[in-house]
């Protein structure tokens, strides 16, 4: 049985200049027998506008550990759904398999743990005639891998958060608060 009960991670990877392909996944990883497994199973039903799906690399290639993805943005059209279930899903799937290859995720526990990943896909992507699919793949691949790595290593640590309390602030606080 795994000792991985509830680990969380997040990452942001910014788009190339002129693109709206920023990726900001949030991941929870845990035992299929614990709270993450319970949440995973309860996500099998659908919620209008917030489709939930297994992460697959391609047809008949669901990743291990079993991973459920859902969007942070309400899906309003097929173009958005196709990007989410296409390039974004494939990038996440590749990142998960590479996490196994690189021992970021424990191979021997791949069937004992599961993951839930919430996905940021900017709604403007669906209407962008100049959307760079390679950049969309890159940002989601890198951010997924980084979020999983952070979850598995507990990064940032409490000590890091305390140490940078007065040197790191949310971008939305520029002009709102000075440290």
Automatic annotation (TrEMBL):
Keyword vocabulary terms for this entry: Lyase
SUPFAM superfamilies documented for this protein: Ribosomal protein S5 domain 2-like (SSF54211)
Gene3D superfamilies hit by this protein: Formaldehyde-activating enzyme (3.30.230.60)
Span of domain Formaldehyde-activating enzyme: 8-171
Gene Ontology terms: biological process: carbohydrate biosynthetic process
Domain of life: Bacteria
Keyword Lyase attributed: yes
GO MF terms, alphabetically ordered: carbon-nitrogen lyase activity
Name recorded for this polypeptide: Formaldehyde-activating enzyme
Annotated organism of origin: Phyllobacterium sophorae
Species lineage: Bacteria, Pseudomonadati, Pseudomonadota, Alphaproteobacteria, Hyphomicrobiales
């Amino acid at each position: 049985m795994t000792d991985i009960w509830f680990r969380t991670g997040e990452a942001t990877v910014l788009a190339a200049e002129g693109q709206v392909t920023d990726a900001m996944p949030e991941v929870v990883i845990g035992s299929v027998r614990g709270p993450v497994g319970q949440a995973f199973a309860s996500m099998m039903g659908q919620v209008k506008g917030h489709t939930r799906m297994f992460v697959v690399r391609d047809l008949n290639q669901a990743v291990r550990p079993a991973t459920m993805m859902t969007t942070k943005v309400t899906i309003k059209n097929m173009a958005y759904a196709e990007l989410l279930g296409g390039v974004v899903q494939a990038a996440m799937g590749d990142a998960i398999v590479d996490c196994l290859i690189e021992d970021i995720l424990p191979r021997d526990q791949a069937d004992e743990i599961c993951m839930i990943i919430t996905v940021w896909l900017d709604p403007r992507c669906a209407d962008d005639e100049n959307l760079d699919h390679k950049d969309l793949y890159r940002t989601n691949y890198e951010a997924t891998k980084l979020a999983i790595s952070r979850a598995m290593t507990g990064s940032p640590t409490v000590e890091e958060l305390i140490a940078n309390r007065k040197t790191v602030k949310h971008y939305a606080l520029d002009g709102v608060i000075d440290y």
